[in-house]
Amino acid sequence: MKIITTLILVFSSLILNAQQILAQEKYVGTIDGKINISFYLKIEETGCPNIIASGIYKYTDNKSGNWILLDTTFSEKAQQYTFVEHYNTGLMLLKRNSVNLQGLWISPDGKKQLKVSLQKMKQTKAEIEKMEDELEKANYNANDC
Q1: Low-confidence winner among 15-24, 79-88, 116-125 (lowest mean pLDDT)
Q2: Which of 58, 66, 75, 114 has a Cα at 20 to 30 A from 94?
Q3: What is the pLDDT of residues 62-107, one digit of tens each?
């Protein structure tokens, strides 16, 4: 019985350590200096080990607006991110530092390129949990058949 308990503890530890959250950050700012947005970025390490990033954003001037899911690729070393809006309605090229995300929003046809400026906000545990729920809902809505 002791061996089984030990094995369960070891496997539980491996599962819990398989994925580690590195960052859960909320940003607020603007696109083109006039369009207010909220932005949520989650960075985690999987057990592979791979670092993955996921994100969502929404327009804050539109109270009923839905979160837009962002498909992400990035360079961890350079802290540069490419966020493609899930239905290819635009993309963001952003550079991250300790306090902000800066870069461009680009329309799908490439004709519009608007400056993006976002500042990191401090969050409570409850706010992080709410953002995690929003990210999960956005993933579900985008990927549920």
Answers
A1: 15-24
A2: 66
A3: 766 789 999 988 888 888 999 999 988 999 999 999 899 999 999 9
- DSSP codes joined into one string, 57-109: EEESSSTTPPPEEEEEEEETTTTEEEEEETTSS-EEEEEE-SSEEEEEEE-TT
Fold of 20-143: Lipocalin (2.40.128)
Task: Enter the tokens of residue 83.
Answer: 């966020």
Q: Token digits for 39?
A: 């932005």
- Rounded CA separation 133/123 (Å): 15
Phi, psi of 109 (to 5 degrees): -85, -5
The token pair that represents 139 in the structure block:
């993933």
Tell me which H or E stretch contains 134.
Answer: helix 125-143
Q: How far apart are CA 43 and CA 9, in angstroms?
A: 27
Peptide bond into 49 cis (omega under 30): yes
Unique residue bearing structure tokens 């990927």: 143
Q: Give the CA radius of gyration of the chain.
A: 18
